[in-house]
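Record 1 of the preview.
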Amino acid sequence: MTEKLKIYWIERRDQIEALCSPTRQDIADRLGAVGPCTVAVLAAALGYRPTALYQHLIALKRVGLVQALPRAAARGRPATQYRLSASLIRWARAPRKAENRQPMTRVAKGLAARAVKDYAAGFNAPHWAIEGPGRNHWVFRLVTRLSRQRLSRINALLNEVARLAYTPDPKPGPLVSIACLMSPIPEKAASGRVGRGARAPAKRSRRSPA
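->
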């Protein structure tokens, strides 16, 4: 039976502002993936110097997203471990408040930039795979028109992806970066676009290569 994860829903603007930094997003993502760890372990996993992470950890701790856990070391000073304040941190509800929408846009920008960096680095990963059930490298974007039934089905599948990604795997493999953005497009902004299932204009248009 899968253990139910404790979810913390981010709705405070100061917490969103703290996560506008791609580095802090990296810290939160990695702590969520590997659990409590020291700054040295976290820095090695992210490719940073430990001294470069302290201020980011303090900022995340200040807004209540990260907790410090002092632990006795075998020798010398106690080694402090850091962990997320909850098993799962989600911000899907944050845009309900109008004041959160601008910082959430900055969060999405940082997330997208980090996803591009991860995608580029993926080509050099020893476990790189672009085909078959073990595929772990993929890029996809589509502007389309969806019925309520199809949108509902897509959301159900996205929820399943999130559940599988966030639930601890009893047999974990190599790290994989997963990013997802979905947005409604105002019709005015979509002028000139023809989504799948939409009626094409009478004028012949050119199809972009896949």
